[in-house]
Amino acid sequence: MLSVKQRSDYTFRFNKKMGRHGWLRLTPAYSVKLVQELVEETLKDARILEPFSGTATTGLCATESGMISDSLDINPFLVWFGNVKCAHFEENELKKLEQRIEKVNEQLPSFLEADNWAPKIHNIERWWCGHTLPLLCALRASIVEEFGEPSDDQYSSLAWVAFCRLMIETSSADFNHVSMSFKEDVTRYEVNQIKLLFKDIVEAVVDSTKENLLGNAEIFLGDSRTLDTLNGKKYDHVITSPPYPNRMSYIRELRPYMYWTKFLNEKKEAGELDWKAIGGTWGTATSKLKEWAPDGVELPESLLVVCEKILHAESKNADLMARYVHKYFYDMHSHFASLRSLLNAGAKIDYIVGNSSFYGNLVNSEKIFESSLVSLGYKNVSSRIVRKRNSKKELFEFCVTAKWNG
Question: Element (H or E) spanning 322, and its range?
Fold first, then answer.
């Protein structure tokens, strides 16, 4: 294991240069290159499933390769964003869009004196200075005037994607760490800078949509533990990367996007959504975790052993962390069980997941996944190391593979 490389080409650093894949930054997003390699292993007439869509990396890679795919996510913002990312666009409509963006910029000054809506982000001045924030609020109001609030319309959605990109680029958000952090200084922007930057971002986003997509992808809102949203469809290859058992809240990374687009309005909504997600830990999700208990589902012995070790660690949060790890793999076991009814005979599954460490106790995610899959009747179960993660020396990313023979 010590010779395994970090492989920056298997992280978002590689994605940023890949057109639509680089539209918005999400630290935990997995590698376009890795997904492309897995898609290439799929027969061209096969149907792909991604039950943890995230930023729609699998859906877009499949579409770029001429495949048909369905994806699922419990976060409505990611469902909206994924469908925009995988949409087909017509050049004449894109030209109309750019003309409408010019109108947005032209009418921006008329909104500067208005009392514009601002998102209820806690400590918002940490994100944007008192001079830049009103400019963003005015630009948002101008976009609403021209396009309305975010909707299913793919062309107006491009304007909102560009605004999200502008919003995060003008913020103090820093992505040089495993999780999003903040820069020491908040940059001040003038109105002409905002207008030019927005125009440049729109041009880059529009330009990336001109590549012809050969397949089709659709992202649905639903819970990966039940998969009932997919109405019994059948699939030949599952390519996905679920949240890792590391207490990194995905809602934390998404909050600024979701507040500005009104997919979130109140802090409590973030906690409620994170509780529904596998591995969620934001806000009320933590307090609800204190009351959680499994319902008797038989889980791998190795999981119970490591949870017991975590429970007896010398920490005031030991019980909470033991429950967190237990619930994470309980939920993933439920997912693997539900997945079986959606797989054609001979279907292959590939899960990219990282291991974790709690109080010095290594949680071997890949081995626990393997044990769950074997107990549920999957065949040819194995795992391989994908890369060394940019953190503690014992942490790696794995690809867990299995077959379903029906």
Answer: helix 318-339
Q: Which residue has the tokens 């809240």?
A: 249
pLDDT tens, position by position, 222-273:
999 999 999 889 999 999 999 999 877 778 889 999 999 999 999 899 999 9
pTM, two decimal places: 0.93
Domain span at residue 240?
A: 8-87+214-252+263-404
Is the separation of the CB atoms in 381 and 370 below 8 Å? yes
Q: Token pair of 205, please?
A: 């986003």
CA distances 339 to 123, 192, 218, 365, Å, are 41, 51, 18, 19
Residue with tokens 């081995």: 367
Q: Tokens at residue 132, please? A: 């830049």
CA distances from 121 to 252, 264, 370 (A): 11, 10, 40
Same domain, residue pair 226 and 183: no
Q: What percentage of the chain's residues is helix, strand, coil (to nearest 5)?
A: 45, 15, 40
Together in a domain, 80 and 221 = yes
Asked whether residue 111 is domain-assigned, the answer is yes
Does the residue 174 lie in any domain? yes
Q: How far apart are CA 12 and CA 71, in angstroms?
A: 20
- Residue 136 is assigned to a structural domain of this protein: yes
